[in-house]
Every structure is written in structure tokens, then in C-alpha cells.
Write a structure and sequence with these properties.
Layout: E1 3-8, H1 12-27, E2 31-32, E3 41-46, H2 51-70, E4 75-80, H3 81-86, H4 89-93, E5 99-101, H5 109-119, E6 123-125, E7 147-151, E8 153-154, H6 165-169, E9 173-174, H7 177-189, E10 194-198, H8 215-223, E11 230-234, H9 243-251, E12 258-260, H10 268-273, H11 280-293, E13 298-305, H12 312-325, E14 329-334, H13 352-375, E15 381-391, E16 402-408, E17 413-418, E18 426-434, E19 439-443
Parallel strand pairs: 1-2, 1-3, 3-4, 4-5, 5-6, 7-10, 10-11, 12-13, 13-14, 17-19
Antiparallel strand pairs: 8-9, 15-16, 15-18, 16-17, 18-19
Helix pairs in contact: 8-9, 9-11, 12-13
The chain binds S-adenosyl-L-homocysteine, iron/sulfur cluster and FE3-S4 cluster.
Length: 445
């Protein structure tokens, strides 16, 4: 019995690709193990978004060299975004790697493994854009029995000047709606309660499809599927975030009013240089439009600190935007220079020490805001989808008191006690305590 282990770096798309690859490994008869040490085949799904993400993948690969020296039968594969960009150069850096394939070759995993075993040689296969449609239709081995990811589109045409995604994921392409709906109906039939629709820019869903459909229409169709209780989506690009979408969110009871809307910078000069196609004022207008229609909406965002030419005044504008919008949470990134991207060639890069200092200031402000947002929920009643539980008596024999864990519609984690048969259900919970990263509460009858 061959044991396989898949290690994932990167975003939700990569996590979901790993679920797909686990499904394919299962199909070829491999047993999946959560323990890398006992695996005979290790697959590293890599991320290229920042230099640090690449370093992590390569240092992991470095450790595997030692493992392989002790276990000569071990085979190692590298896939994902670094593999798509670097191809066979990966072998030059890590000669102990046996298999390299890109983000468009995932469906080819069974054949590639067969070739690797038969020829006893290294196998490298990187496709360009043409083969993308084949990614779908294979068995997916999902990590979570209640919440599922569903790809609605792939690639990105936006070419933000800092970003490597268009180079590693190719051009934007929407998946036919009937395929998406069929997958979600199937998930509902198998007991899944929540779906998260994935795409690098979900708001432009439908462009290029034969069928007349856009993202709000897709949400409305998914909202009709019986058995699914919640719908989330990520990521939204502010330039395409429309009133029509906000109306669909407001009209569809299952669509959670939590929007991840990356703003990247509060300075118009920097936004222009990033090729984001909106100004800070336009971003704030969209936030106000959303809150006017859905006052309870929660917004999270991404921001980059230290983009080339960012000066103190630009950074202050970013801080002002954060204070004005009051995000539920913020992913803060230090700008990282990426090969191929336009900004990688910009002359005026910001020194590391300044980037780091700005990063810390920003984090402190957002930590305060996140805590305040959570505090404001104490005493309120929230709908929670219960995802998991842990027996409080240690072995679970009493069957009653469990520490249950779930998420509110705004995606905040809440913990409370209750019986385990509530897992997978929607319940009302009264919030009694707020911490920075989670909430505590009491389940209401
Ligand atoms: N498709 C999504 C997410 C892209 S990657 C979107 O368009 O929003 C997630 C986040 O990583 C981005 O929103 C951006 O804030 C950050 N990021 C991307 N490239 C980066 C770089 N070179 N340096 C620092 N952060 C980066
Ligand atoms: Fe990258 Fe911009 Fe595309 Fe997002 S929209 S994936 S940040 S190029
Ligand atoms: Fe995602 Fe990283 Fe690739 S963020 S798309 S895994 S470069």
C-alpha cells in the first residue's frame, strides 16, 4: 500500500487544488496519510505570491532531501504556482524532486505518476492556458464535511503591477454555470451546508461564457438550492463591486453579508501605480453603498505596505482609510518584489526597515479596531453554523457537554457548550465575551 501526503502552501485555491489532488491520489489506489514521516509519496503544492512563501516551500523541500536520503524509495512531487513559473528550474535547485507539474496539469496527476514509476525517471509537465477546462469533473477529497469550496472561475486578467497570479494562473476563465450548480446540488445531497465560491475576481464571473449570466445571477441561482444554508465568496475586486451584486446579497437569505474587498492602499498615487483602477474615495463610496443597503455587513480586506514609491503621506492615507472603513479584519502584507511583475522593475523600492515600521503601526491600529468590532457584538444574538465539537469530559462518553465551535454570518468564530448532535446545524447564539480572534457565547433554545 503506497501512502501519500500532500502539503499545501498558499491561498484557498491551492487548498482546494490539494483536495482535488488527494481525490486523484485516492483514485490511483494511494492511501492518504496526515503524517509526512510515513509517506512514500510527498506532494508539495506551492505558492509564489510573496518571496517568503517561496522560501517556505524551498526550505521544506530542503528538509525532504534528508528524509529521502534515509528512505530511498520516497518520491517527491512539486506542483502549484512556483512549479508553473519555474518548471524544470525546480530540479536544478532541488535535484531530489521526482515530479514537477503546473497549475493546469492537475487532472494529469494519475498519468504523471504512472510515467514516473514506469520510466524510473523524473517527470516534468507544465501546460499553458489551453488545458484549463479539464481541471474539473474529478473526485475531490474534501477536508471539511460541512463547508465546501467550489471553483467558479480561474486565472486573472487584472495585472495589478505587484502580483504574480496572472503569470501562474493564466488568463481569466469562468466555469459554466450549469456545472457549478450541479456540483453544489451534489454537495447539498451529501450533507454539506456551506459553500464558498472561489475565484481571483468573482465579480467578473460570466465574462466570455456563451450563456448570459453574471455573478449576481449566479448567486441568486445558488440561493435556490435546497439543503445549502450558507453561501460565501472570495475575492471581490472593488472596481467590479456593483450595486446589482449588493442587491443580490441583500435579497438572498443564504448569501452571507461578509465581503472580502481588498483595498491594497489608501493613496490614489499608489493605487494608480498598482493598476487597481479605483481611487480611495471610490472604494469608500462602494463601502457606503453596501452599508446603506445592508447595515449589518462586515468587510475584511487586504493591504500592502511599502509598495515602491510609498511615502509617509501615502501611508498616512492608508491609515485614514482603515480608520474610516472600520474593517472586521485585515490581512496586512509587506510588499514583496516578484519576478515578471511590472512593479518588480520600479526603481524606487522602499527600504525594509521603513516597510517593517509601517507594518507594525498598521497592525496595532487594526488590532484595536478588530477588538472593538468584536466587543460591539457582546450581548447580541448571532446565527452560528456549528462546524465541530470537542468533548469536555475527555472521552465523550457522557454525550452531553461539548465545546462547540462555529462561525457567524460575518465569519467570526464562536465557541460555546452544547450537545454534539448540533454539529452541522444553524443555531442562535448569544455572545457573552469577545476576544481579538474569536467570540464566546451561550446557545439559545
Ligand atoms: N485574487 C485576490 C488575492 C490575490 S493574492 C485579489 O485580487 O484580491 C492575496 C493578497 O496578497 C493580495 O490582495 C495582496 O494584498 C497580496 N499580495 C499580492 N502580491 C503581493 C506582493 N507582491 N507583495 C505583497 N503582497 C502581495
Ligand atoms: Fe493579483 Fe490583482 Fe488579479 Fe488579485 S486582481 S489576483 S491582486 S492581479
Ligand atoms: Fe494562491 Fe499563492 Fe498561487 S496566493 S494563486 S497559491 S501564488
Amino acid at each position: 500500500m503506497v501512502k501519500a501526503y500532500v502539503k499545501t502552501f498558499g491561498c484557498q485555491m491551492n487548498e482546494h487544488d490539494s483536495e482535488r489532488m488527494r481525490g486523484l491520489l485516492h483514485k490511483v489506489g494511494y492511501t492518504l496519510t496526515p503524517d509526512e514521516a510515513e509517506a512514500d509519496f510527498i506532494l508539495i503544492n506551492t505558492c509564489s505570491i510573496r518571496e517568503k512563501a517561496e522560501q517556505k516551500a524551498f526550505s521544506h523541500l530542503g528538509r525532504l532531501k534528508l528524509r529521502k536520503a534515509k528512505k530511498p524509495g520516497l518520491r517527491i512531487g512539486v506542483c502549484g504556482c512556483i512549479a508553473q513559473r519555474e518548471g524544470e528550474r525546480i530540479i536544478r535547485r532541488a535535484p531530489h524532486v521526482d515530479l514537477v507539474f503546473g497549475t493546469k496539469n492537475i487532472h494529469r496527476l494519475p498519468q504523471l505518476i504512472e510515467k514516473m514509476i514506469k520510466t524510473k525517471r523524473r517527470v516534468i509537465e507544465i501546460y499553458d492556458d489551453r488545458e484549463r477546462w479539464q481541471q474539473f469533473g474529478c473526485e475531490i477529497e474534501r477536508d471539511n464535511p460541512i463547508r465546501a469550496w467550489v471553483t467558479i472561475m480561474q486565472g486573472c486578467n487584472n495585472y495589478c503591477t505587484y502580483c504574480v497570479v496572472p503569470y501562474v494562473r493564466g488568463s481569466e476563465w469562468s466555469r459554466p454555470a450549469q456545472e457549478i450548480l450541479a456540483e453544489i446540488r451534489d454537495l447539498a445531497a451529501n450533507g454539506y451546508k456551506e459553500v464558498t465560491l472561489l475565484g481571483h475576481n468573482v465579480n467578473s464571473y460570466g465574462r466570455g461564457l456563451d450563456q448570459e449570466i453574471n455573478f449576481p445571477a449566479l448567486l441568486r441561482a445558488i440561493d435556490q438550492i435546497e439543503g445549502i444554508e450558507r453561501i460565501r465568496f472570495t475575492t471581490s475586486h472593488p472596481k467590479d463591486f456593483s450595486e446589482e451584486l449588493v442587491e443580490a446579497i441583500a435579497d438572498c437569505p443564504k448569501v452571507c453579508e461578509h465581503i472580502h474587498l481588498p483595498f491594497q492602499s489608501g493613496s490614489d498615487k499608489i493605487l494608480k501605480s498598482m493598476n487597481r483602477n479605483y481611487t480611495a474615495a471610490e472604494y469608500i463610496d462602494k463601502v457606503n453603498m453596501l452599508r446603506a443597503k445592508i447595515p449589518q455587513a462586515g468587510i475584511t480586506s487586504d493591504v500592502i505596505v511599502g509598495f515602491p514609491t510609498e511615502e509617509e503621506a501615502d501611508f498616512q492615507q492608508t491609515l485614514r482609510l482603515i480608520e474610516e472603513v472600520q474593517f472586521e479584519g485585515l490581512f496586512t502584507f509587506l510588499y514583496s518584489r516578484r519576478p515578471q511583475t511590472a512593479a518588480g522593475n520600479f526603481a524606487q523600492q522602499v527600504p525594509n526597515s521603513i516597510k517593517q515600521k509601517r507594518f507594525e503601526i498598521l497592525l496595532e491600529i487594526q488590532n484595536r479596531i478588530s477588538s472593538e468590532r468584536n466587543e460591539s457584538l457582546v450581548g447580541t444574538q448571532q446565527e452560528v453554523l456549528i462546524e465541530e465539537g470537542k468533548a469536555l469530559d475527555g472521552d465523550g462518553t457522557s454525550g452531553r457537554e461539548y465545546l462547540l465551535r462555529g462561525r457567524t454570518r460575518l465569519n467570526k468564530i464562536v465557541e460555546f457548550t452544547g450537545p454534539p448532535d448540533q454539529i452541522g446545524k444553524l443555531r442562535q447564539v448569544k455572545i457573552t465575551k469577545a476576544n481579538r480572534f474569536n467570540l464566546e457565547g451561550i446557545m439559545l433554545p
